[in-house]
Design a protein that fits this description.
GO terms for molecular function: arylsulfatase activity; metal ion binding. With 606 residues, the chain is an alpha+beta fold. The protein folds into two domains: 346 residues, Alkaline Phosphatase, subunit A, CATH 3.40.720.10; 155 residues, Jelly Rolls (Sandwich). The chain has eleven helices and 27 strands. Helix 4 runs parallel beside helix 6 and helix 5 crosses helix 6.
Length: 606
């Protein structure tokens, strides 16, 4: 905190989904209009060589813990590998311990059951949707961006005719207003995490028509329209903060969670073919800079942050730096550690001096590593980049052509010229850095975070979104996959905390619509500004199987089957389980001998 200040600053962290570095007018986008964010940009310190993970859940895990995402237990958006390590305190935990009121509004994607939800992880108040985006399998059935059933601290709440981004900003303003009115001397920490502009690109035409009229493809025009709506909402929030004199002592951070998605199209080598990505190679998911470099904007008028030319920071920074930075700026330690001890447990560095214009002590030899796994079990050398302030060593194997490339960051920011042969010594040094990094993070690859079941549990719902060992590259994640009856399967990991008898109910459709397993469901079309929902297919499923093994030994515990009747909404199995970890495999078999998992599994103690 500034010298002489006794009031800890508020913290407002805004994270958008799939908005990349080039998705602002202030970073040179020739089509997009973001006047309110441009104004914020002009008032703030701007981190230009700022990196996250190439996909959303890992970025969130690293941001909230200050650790590389794999250490935090998150290296995929699916496969049960998005459950945040319960032994690592979150940013909200640190602020709550320091006496802050904490709130979270929007996308969570760090686990969809008890022990993992935001109100279990340090947030006093939380309103959120299920899964990684509205309309995924863990989300309430048939939710869309204009009409949705959301969860407030674990209880459902219906929102009608209200756009999701508007809801998140409204709730943020309400949280701040209620808190500062009731406890004006107590600071707040608020995490506003929009699901926009992530697909589906559904937005009112008032925001997208301008971009359609410029001749942009429909998907990109709607993507930009969603960002225009974010910009409008941010302007409204910023006006509120200023009207309440809260802007001066609030640390406000704004960033996206990975590289752009619909803002650019690329070829098989990651080079842009249309759109805008600030000259970078790759986009979301890719290992090149365009997949994970973003803009981080930080404003704190009372904090003595840099002004003038020093507002533009080109030093190598990352999402893992923000937690130690905020702890430093707010003079916060954990309840039982000194500030130095707290930071030593984190992978990131405090940027406090850098934000105030002093980079004299910032280590020029810093090395960072980024990778994209999207697998149940991580694979070495898959889609990674080693970064220094001068060089990039990248191999984009699944999302690119798989060539190992060394590029000069300062003279070739578009990463077009491979200098691997001419600068082999540098490449070897960066390879060694990768090996050291992999050796460190791989210690956490044996961690598995289960669904917890106990005597006091209400119904626990597990979904295909969390299947381990999935057989499809992208997994099963959307409600549309349930509608088409995708033929895939994987196991779920559970932990029994108190031995008991449990009933497991295998469903094709979620309990909120309670539809027979064999039946189809109606589609939905013609709703203004909302993507159509195709009809759900009827399937001639005749058998349900339930298989339980101990974990990790694989010893068989249960292997049973029942016939599926015409009107059965679920197939029920009751089994006694002792304390411990188990793998659950569910299977529906149809008349063509296709085997697919039960997309929904409800469990309760008997």
């Amino acid at each position: 905190m500034p010298a002489g200040s006794s009031q800890k600053p508020n913290v407002l962290l805004i994270l958008t989904d799939d908005q990349g570095y080039g998705d602002y007018s202030c970073t040179g986008n020739p089509w997009l209009r973001t006047p309110n964010l441009d104004k914020l940009y002009s008032e703030s310190v701007r981190l230009h060589d700022f990196h996250l993970d190439p996909m959303c859940a890992p970025s969130r895990a690293a941001l909230l813990t200050g650790k590389y995402s794999a250490k935090a237990g998150v290296w995929s958006t699916l496969s049960g590998r998005y459950f945040l390590n319960r032994d690592i305190p979150t940013m909200a935990d640190h602020f709550k311990t320091a006496g802050y009121r904490t709130g979270m509004f929007g996308k969570w994607h760090m686990g969809d059951s008890d022990r993992y939800l935001p109100h279990d992880r340090g947030f006093d108040e939380a309103l959120y949707h299920g899964g990684g985006v509205i309309g995924e399998i863990p989300d309430y059935w048939d939710n869309d961006y204009f009409n949705s059933t959301l969860m407030r601290n674990g209880n459902s709440e219906v929102f009608t005719d209200k756009y999701c981004t508007d809801i998140w900003f409204d709730e943020t303003i309400s949280f701040i207003e209620r808190h500062t009115t009731a406890s004006p001397d107590k600071p707040f920490f608020c995490y506003l995490s929009t699901n926009a502009p992530h697909w589906p690109h559904d937005v009112h035409e008032n925001y997208s028509n301008y971009y359609l009229e410029q001749g942009l493809p429909e998907s990109r025009a709607k993507f930009y329209g969603m960002i225009a709506n974010i910009d409008e909402n941010f302007g409204r929030l910023n006006t509120y903060l200023k009207s309440k004199d809260l802007d001066q002592n609030t640390i406000l951070l704004f960033m996206g969670d990975n590289g752009t998605d619909a803002g650019a199209s690329v070829d098989s080598a990651g080079h842009m073919t249309s759109g805008f990505n600030a000259g970078m190679r790759g986009k979301k998911c890719w290992a090149y800079d365009g997949g994970h470099r973003n803009l981080c904007i930080i404003r704190w008028p009372n904090g003595g942050l840099a002004q003038g030319p020093s507002q533009d920071v080109d030093r190598l920074t990352a999402h893992i730096d923000l937690l130690p930075t905020l702890l430093d700026l707010c003079n916060i330690t954990s309840s039982d550690q000194s500030s130095d001890e707290t930071e030593s447990l984190l992978d990131g560095w405090s940027l406090a001096d850098l934000l105030r214009g002093d980079d004299s002590a910032y280590y020029a030899g810093r090395t960072l590593v980024v990778h994209n796994q999207q697998k149940d079990n991580p694979v070495k050398f898959k889609d990674y980049e080693v970064l220094t302030e001068d060089w990039r060593l990248a191999q984009s194997s699944e999302w690119g052509e798989g060539t190992l490339e060394l590029t000069d960051k300062r003279n070739d920011p578009g990463q077009r010229h491979n200098l691997l042969e001419s600068h082999g010594d540098i490449a070897n040094e960066l390879k060694r850095s990768y090996e050291e990094w992999w050796s460190e993070i791989s210690k956490g690859f044996n961690q598995s975070w289960p669904f917890y079941l106990g005597l006091n549990s209400e119904i626990v719902t597990m979904t295909a979104h969390a299947w381990h060992s999935i057989t499809r590259r992208d997994g099963i994640y959307a409600q549309s996959h349930c509608r088409t009856g995708e033929i895939h399967n994987g196991y779920l990991l559970i932990e029994i905390e108190q031995k008991s008898r449990f009933e497991f109910r295998l469903r094709r459709w979620p309990k909120e619509i309670d539809t027979p397993i064999r039946s189809g469901v109606t589609g939905r079309s013609g709703v203004p500004y909302v993507s159509d929902f195709e009809p759900g297919l009827a399937l001639k499923i005749h058998t349900a199987k339930f298989h339980v093994e101990s974990h990790p030994s694989g010893n068989l515990v249960v292997d049973e089957s029942v016939a599926v009747g015409e009107q059965m909404c679920y197939a029920a199995f009751q089994v006694h389980l002792d304390t411990g970890l188990y793998r659950i495999l569910t299977t529906f078999i149809d008349d063509e001998n296709n085997e697919r998992g039960a997309y929904y599994l409800d469990v309760m103690p008997v």
